[in-house]
Amino acid sequence: MSRILVTGSADGLGRAAADALLSQGHQVVVHARNRQRGHDLADLVARGAELTVADFTERDAVRRMAAELGNAAPLDAVIHNAGVWSGPAVMPVNVVAPYLLTALTPTPRRLVYLSSGSHFSGSPVLEGVDWTGLSPGSYADSKLFVTALAAAVAGLRPGTPSNAVDPGWVPTKMGGPGAPDDLELGHRTQAWLATGDDPEAMTTGGYWYHQQRQQTHPAVHDEAFQDRLLQVLAEETGVELS
Fold first, then answer.
1. Segments in the chain below pLDDT 70
2. pTM exceeding the 0.85 threshold for the entire prediction
3. pLDDT for 168
4. How far is CA 4 from CA 21, 78, 111, in A?
5. Catalytic residue at 99?
6. Active-site residue 207, yes or no?
7. Of 203, 204, 171, 205, which is closest to residue 187 (Cα–Cα)?
8. Looking at 99, 113, 139, 207, which residue is catalytic?
9. Across the strands, what pairs with 110?
10. Of 99, 113, 143, 207, which is the active-site residue?
């Protein structure tokens, strides 16, 4: 049995992953951005999930959540699922929050970051990016950055499998009702990478789609780009990731 944090688990893929992991007998920490959204997780809490609340658009809230997690029982895995599609919250939620949580919480046994096929359309240009959320951010860029973050962590922490997952374009609130991919398959890979005991699930530095390792945008495994990304985020947040 593992203890696993799933961020952004009030609905969609995060909720599906948390539900599946609970059904498998794992201890699950679910996350909502506010107390009202936390009410949507009451049924999972009734089944034994722990609830943590933090608005990922606010760095201080992310820091408080990291401190709370650090004072609680150790995590075996973190699934960085929380994400937004558009608007000023894109960079704070999709990139800055997982960066801060990775840097500030004790290293779990495994790390999983939610990417997207949209990352192929992202631009590996860090100059001029608004990390604060004062202006709308590019979803494609954010997914390129978080996929590179997952790869960079794999290099920094070789004993901790760190992987990115493309769940497909699935019919969640974000994906829309016309999304063509299978919702049931959308959460399985991240749950498998967080808990699976077969050799593939314990590899690192991968980008996965439906439990198959895939090629990425060339910038993802460009160590110079990874280093620049980590440097920019460290300067922006005042927190170094090591």
1. 169-184
2. yes
3. 76
4. 8, 6, 10
5. no
6. no
7. 171
8. 139
9. 77
10. 143
